[in-house]
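Bug report (template v2)

What were you trying to do?
Predict the complex of my protein with fe (ii) ion.

What happened?
Run completed; filing so the output is reviewed.

Input:
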Amino acid sequence: MNAEIATTLERLEAEDISPSIGSRVHLDKQALLSGEYASQLRDLLEQRGVLVFPKINFTDEEQVAFTETIGNFLPEMEGQKVYNISLDKEKNPKSDYLKGSLYWHIDGTMNKKPIGAAILSSKVLPTWGGNTEFCNTYAAWEQLPDEDKQRIENLKVMHSAWTSLLYYDPEPSYEKLEEMMSLGEVELPLVWNHRSGRKSLVLGCTAHHVIGMDPSESARLLTRLRAWATQPKFVYSHEWSVGDAVMWDNTGTLHRAMPYDPDCGRLLHRTKTAGEEPIQ
Ligand SMILES: [Fe+2]
């Protein structure tokens, strides 16, 4: 660990969770809301992928205020500031859409600029399951063998919402498939060249095929890279306590929810910041 990182960790009262991903931050709520540590939190987030604030107990207003210190606050499409993540239709009428979140993904690959940071707060625990898992796609790229890096560096991949539909509804109605196809498709680089100069892998359940590659070769490559990026050394699995907040860098990680009882009322509140750069 270099001296600069050690100083940052000390100032943020933070500790690393594992070598490749995640830090726990023990600053108190007042310190987080003051904005005084925001730029260091952003830097640490970019380095570590995930920051955990154990039992910080943000109210919605506080979570919004904290998110505003991290970046440009991005409300939901319907205008509300806080999104209910729940399979309970009373808490989230569009909960079907969340079924795709059980598979590794980046939020907003279909948008010009995927969201930047996202913050989840736990309100109601599941009766079983329901961890949220993250993997560090910067670290996964950095530790790839050189021959893989050279092979994949300039490849492009078709992403779509309908591809993720087939993960959670493998035999959809024709109408459902058409509805999801109407959301479009995008070609994205397999390796994201960030403006910082760092690189990360762009994978997940929206990735359909590598452009111009034989279909079985493409499936092999995307599956092998996803398995590589989500191996235990690059993954942090967060087991929730009520009041925990977890922030992740959506541009340098994949995430997923682990299965849980859909009737248990598990509830997380999410806020997010606008993305600052397209995948390029
Ligand atoms: Fe997500």
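What did the reviewer find?
The two ends are 30 Å apart (CA to CA). Residues 101, 105, 107, 255 surround fe (ii) ion (CB under 6 Å).
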